[in-house]
Specification:
Layout (H helix, E strand, L loop, with lengths): L4 H18 L5 E4 L2 E5 L3 E5 L4 E6 L5 E7 L2 E6 L3 E9 L4 E10 L5 E6 L2 E7 L3 E4 L8
Parallel strand pairs: 2-8
Antiparallel strand pairs: 1-2, 3-6, 4-7, 5-6, 7-8, 9-10, 10-11
Length: 137
């Protein structure tokens, strides 16, 4: 699917403006064609048109909920990538972007033992992350 430049530009302006206002409270960032979200954190996206339908490619990686007709909440569930498509009332894509769910590096511990690796999320206490089949390499 091709992107129209004005739509992408509006989304990026909205995301950048939101990031400036809420940078300290939202653990996510938007870059180029990727919306980054940390695992177990939520991201609020406000749109300039009414949302008709929201589609997430892999619900095991990220979850999405419609908060109001122009606002969605995107939550990182597991490490990996997926895509997000948001349609307006006319069925046109408002958003068609890749989602990258990653770990908050500041709160992780990696343990390497020969060829195996364990990743622990340490916020507030350390718990091992066990990758699901959908997110394993």
């Amino acid at each position: 699917m091709t992107h129209s430049h004005p739509v992408r530009s509006r989304l990026m302006h909205a995301l950048c403006g939101m990031a400036l206002v809420t940078m300290s409270t939202l653990p996510a960032q938007a870059t180029d064609d990727v919306i980054r979200v940390f695992m177990d954190h939520a991201r609020i996206l406000k749109l300039d048109r009414t949302i008709s339908k929201v589609i997430i490619g892999n619900a095991a990686v990220a979850d999405v909920a419609i908060s109001d007709p122009q606002t969605i909440v995107l939550t990182g569930k597991s490490y990996g990538t997926t895509n997000l498509v948001i349609l307006d009332q006319a069925g046109d894509a408002i958003v068609d972007e890749r989602i990258l769910v990653s770990v908050d590096e500041a709160n992780t511990l990696r343990v390497f033992k020969q060829t195996s690796r364990s990743v622990f999320s340490c916020s507030p206490s350390c718990e091992e992350h066990v990758p699901t089949a959908a997110t394993s390499p």
